[in-house]
Amino acid sequence: MLSRKELFKDTLKKAAHAWKRTVELHLTEEEANLLRLYIDQPGYVDLHWVMFVPAIKGQGTEEQQKKWLTMAYKFQIIGTYAQTELGHGSNVQGLETTATFDPSTDEFIMHSPTLTSSKWWPGGLGKTSTHAVVYARLITEGKDYGIHGFIMQLRSLDDHSPLPGITIGDIGGKFGSGAYNSMDNGVMRLDHVRIPRDQMLMRLAQVTREGKYVHSDVPKQLLYGTMVYVRQTIVADASRALSRAVCIAVRYGAIRKQFGSKAGGPETQVLNYKTQQSRLFPFLASAYAFRFVGQWLKWLYTDVTQKLESKDFSTLPEAHACTAGLKSVTTSATADAIEECQKLCGGHGYLNSSGLPELFAVNLPACTYEGDNVVLLLQVARFLMKTVSQVASGKQPVGTTAYMGNIQHLMQCKSVVNTVEDWLNPAAIKEVFEARALRMAVNCAQNISKAPSQEEGFEAAVAHVQLIIVTKFIEKLQEDILGHGVKEQLQKLCGIYALHLIHKHLGDFLSTGCVTARQGSLANERLGKLYAQVRPNAVALVDAFDYTDHYLGSALGRYDGDVYSALYKEAWKDPLNETVVPDGYQEHLRPLLKQQLKLSRL
Ligand SMILES: CCCCCCCCCCCCCCCCCCC/C=C/C(=O)SCCNC(=O)CCNC(=O)[C@H](O)C(C)(C)COP(=O)(O)OP(=O)(O)OC[C@H]1O[C@@H](n2cnc3c(N)ncnc32)[C@H](O)[C@@H]1OP(=O)(O)O
Ligand SMILES: Cc1cc2nc3c(=O)[nH]c(=O)nc-3n(C[C@H](O)[C@H](O)[C@H](O)COP(=O)(O)OP(=O)(O)OC[C@H]3O[C@@H](n4cnc5c(N)ncnc54)[C@H](O)[C@@H]3O)c2cc1C
Q: Catalytic residues (predicted)?
């Protein structure tokens, strides 16, 4: 119900309070992160911690890190990540902002040469940030060396006014009434703004005092390292958002009753309808699947970072493919699922008090930010094509592509599934997913060699990423899992996750010969049985997410199930209900009604 200005100020207040508590309680970075999650409104702090600090960590020299991170950690400066421009987002190499070295003063001149080069979107840029890592084309000795990162001060640390040569503001209201409107995504134009040479982030490359450009011995792809880090955190965000939506829809489905009463008896809980289960339980399974793959991705990222520190860059391409692919698949599935959860809750799901519209609006842009999901899947496809060609030349693939080494078997194997029960076998499930992913990648590589097209590999990329998620779920089940019967429930969810994908992508499985039509129909039969088995525990499985009513923010998803009185109470809080007769009655309704009355009496 807050206006944009009130919402923005409210976020500033909450973030400042969280920061105060972080300092007072001496919270670790991990604990502070958890606290931030409970603010639960996008704000400048996200960019400061998730992009500004990591960009300096990844691309700054030790000296630069010492100087800037010290200030950033103490919140003496607030930073953002200014990469995207009005005319350029996905194509980073196409950015236009220039950083031209002037040896006479030992400075870079930062400039926006065109309208389309205006920085556009960075979170916190519009009204809050004092500093930014700005991405610009480095020009020295008359040569354009492409995109590099530069630390720029944007606003005065005394009165917060923009520094000379910098025009800066908010880009305007966004989708939904709340959601991302708490964030001041910004626009910025630079008019020949000078910064000292040592504010170029110099871990990847340096410009000497004389203006000479020098490469370091680290791969230039590390320029994109901050995005790898954030994409990894976004997978965990997606799993959290999806589990919130599913929690609301499952709990409400157990309360809501429609039809089915016999002789005046109670109606049926909508959660008992098979159609409801087949729409909703795959999301429940996905919420668990994304959580487990998110945990694994965090491990992978930590592992890669440790290797990078000891100058082992070999796993960087895989880390890029995994983070890009998983960010893409999990955020797209989550946005679609939240929208469907609204429909699963019927009309009440469309009310703001259900919590679902806000959840949808705030998570939808995750399909776009940190890399448009289609563009990122094309990066995965590129990685797969390279791996296929390496396999063809005898190289043994490792990590998430290790299955491609089993090419002889996977290209011709037939699924062993013969009965409905066979679809309970994780090895049988894994094999069909591996075969489908490999066959699609190989087909794509063959098609590309005939008619090169970057867009060919999209479907193959999806198949590969789904294989990763299924595999990590299966691997999770091989660990010790505490709690009586918990493992059995997770096994059922794992089955639902995998088999619903077979159902959804049956065309791929059939056309690649990985599954026969009969096996596809056995999978559907198994799926129906699993839905019925999960039903008695569905509410417990969402209670296990352990969300408080406050955090869930939903009249429909309340733990106590007292949905109708909550909806009723929420309705009366609407500003329209502050008066019995609405504002505008005197000017617009009364004269109209009076006039019509007069006319009818003539
Ligand atoms: C006290 C402590 C308190 C702590 C408090 C903590 C609080 C924490 C809160 C956490 C909450 C989380 C909240 C999350 C909020 C998230 C906010 C998001 C805000 C959004 C930000 C943005 O959107 S920033 C802008 C993002 N932009 C993009 O993503 C652009 C996408 N485009 C690209 O990445 C590139 O243009 C490209 C990859 C699509 C193409 O690149 P290029 O033109 O160079 O071409 P190639 O395709 O030829 O690639 C060349 C080569 O490089 C490889 N490669 C590409 N990318 C990467 C990479 N990232 N890493 C490694 N390698 C990469 C590519 O594969 C090619 O390799 P080859 O070997 O040549 O094949
Ligand atoms: C809420 C939000 C917050 C953001 N925060 C930041 C931030 O803090 N800092 C920052 O720098 N940026 C930020 N961004 C910008 C974001 O990173 C870009 O929007 C994103 O990278 C996509 O780029 P684009 O908008 O230019 O889309 P475009 O690239 O113009 O995409 C438009 C369409 O074209 C398609 N397309 C593009 N290229 C290809 C291709 N090669 N093949 C096939 N299809 C293609 C896409 O799939 C899409 O459908 C934010 C964006 C949002 C929405």
A: 370 (proton acceptor)
Cross-strand partners of 149: 135
**Domain 4-216, CATH homologous superfamily name and number:** Butyryl-CoA Dehydrogenase, subunit A, domain 2 (2.40.110.10)
Correct CATH for 226-395+425-480+487-541 of 1.20.140.10, 2.40.170.20, 2.10.109.10, 3.40.640.10? 1.20.140.10
Q: What does the pLDDT read at residue 451?
A: 66
User: Which helix (DSSP H) or strand (DSSP E) does residue 72 occupy?
Assistant: helix 62-73
Ligand nearest to the CA of 363: 2
- In 216-295, beta strands by DSSP E: 257-258, 268-269
CA distance 95 to 457: 26
**How, if at all, do strands 131-140 and 79-82 pair?**
parallel
Of 226, 375, 454, best ligand 2 pocket probe by most atoms within 8 Å of the beta carbon = 375
Show the ligand 1 pocket: residues with CB < 6 angstroms: 22, 29, 32-33, 36, 46, 49-50, 81, 83-84, 90-93, 123, 221, 224, 227-228, 230, 233, 237, 316-317, 320, 369-371, 375, 379, 382
Burial (CB count <10 Å: 0-12, 13-18, 19+), residue 565: exposed
pLDDT for res 450: 74
Residue 143 three-state SS: strand
123 a known binding residue?
yes
Mutate to test the pocket of ligand 1, among 227, 307, 363 (most ligand atoms within 8 A of CB): 227
Query: CA 280, CA 246: separation in Å to the nearest integer?
Result: 7
H/E run at residue 111: strand 107-111
Of 144, 141, 54, which Cα lies nearest the Cα of 94?
144
CA 309 to chain centre: 27
The residue whose CA is least distant from atom 39 of ligand 2 is 375
ipTM for this model: 0.95
Q: Is 84 annotated as a binding residue?
A: yes
Please identify which of the residues 107, 370, 431, 456 carries the catalytic annotation: 370
Closest CA to 184 of 134, 118, 124, 133: 124
Instruction: Provide the pLDDT for residue 440.
Output: 96
Q: Residue 41: how many CA atoms within 13 Å on its side-chain side? A: 22
Q: Where are the domains of the chain?
A: 4-216, 226-395+425-480+487-541
Asked if 421 is an active-site residue, the reply is: no
Ligand 2, atom 43: nearest CA belongs to which residue?
Answer: 375
Whole-prediction pTM value? 0.96
Nearest to 414 by CA among 432, 426, 399: 432
Residue type at position 511: S
- Under a CB-based contact definition with an 8 Å cutoff, are residues 507 and 549 in contact? no
Q: Which atom of ligand 2 is nearest to the CA of 119?
A: 11
| Rounded Cα gap, residues 58 and 144, in angstroms | 23
What is the tens place of the pLDDT at every residue in 294-336? 999 999 999 999 998 888 999 999 999 999 999 999 999 999 9
Is-contact 287 239, C-beta < 8 A? yes
pLDDT tens digits for range 472-524: 999 999 999 999 999 999 999 999 999 999 999 999 999 999 999 999 999 99
**How many other CB atoms are found less than 10 A from the CB of residue 410?**
20
Q: Which two tokens stand for residue 175?
A: 């989708």
